Amino acid sequence: QIEVFTDDQGTTGGPAEKLAVPYGEFATYSPDGKQIAYLPQSQAFRTWKRYRGGWAPDVWTFDLATRASANVTASDANDEHPMWHGDTLYFLSDRGANQRANIWARDKGGAVRQVTQFADFDVTFPALGPQDIVFEAGGRLYLLNLATEKATEVAIQVVTDRTTLKPRTETVDELIREAAPSPTG
Q1: Which tens digits make up the pLDDT trace of 107-142?
Q2: Which of 17, 23, 131, 179 has the fewest CB atoms within 10 Å, i.e. is most exposed?
Q3: Which residues of 99-114 are buried (b: 16+ CB within 10 A; e: fewer)?
């Protein structure tokens, strides 16, 4: 059950109020706070890659004032992780020709377009920030600039002095618990 905290004027705060949405996951508020985008059921973290069928998740919206809901991605593909930025609703989908999960965008008019173009690996774990979406693909982190919709790899450098990797002599006589001669003595 999705719950939202509002007062009489629709502002944040006050007691919990159950929504007329039976179940939802991965919900996100629209920037104006008047709608939520959510998944009635999610297949995230399951092993159903490229699944097509009745359990394929779609992104739905729910209007907090009118209590109307609508399926806004309506596809046999897997649509997950809605993220609202301005008038654009970003989400993951494997609806492309190669059926890899990529970031897609739905504009205010309902037009849907593919934003990232990963063909070898699925995009996973997207997280929306004020100006970017960070995500993982193929074991690497990427930052999607929402103004340009261009993704760049995030350079990760692990700083170490590497002294633990150098060959060295260790005194281990106190670590010995048992000893036995080898077959050749």
Answers
A1: 999 999 999 999 999 999 999 999 999 999 999 999
A2: 179
A3: bbbbbbbbeeeeebee
Q: Copy the structure tokens of residue 98.
A: 């190669």
Calpha distance 176→182 (Å, rounded): 15
Write out pLDDT tens, residues 26-39: 889 999 999 999 99
| Alpha-carbon span 104 to 114, nearest angstrom | 4
Secondary structure of the chain as H, E, C letters? CCEEEECCCCCEEEEEEECCCCCCEEEEECCCCCEEEEECCCCCCCCCCCCCCCCCCCCEEEECCCCCEEECCCCCCCEEEEEEECCEEEEEECCCCCCCCEEEEECCCCCEEECCCCCCCCEEEEEECCCEEEEEECCEEEEEECCCCEEEECCCCCCCCCHHHCCCCCCCHHHCCCCCCCCCC
pLDDT tops 80 at residue 94: yes
Q: Is the pTM of this model over 0.85?
A: no
Token digits of residue 18: 């159950």
Residue with tokens 């205010």: 108
Percent over 90 (pLDDT), the chain: 54
Cα atoms in the Cβ-side hemisphere of radius 13 Å centred on 94: 21
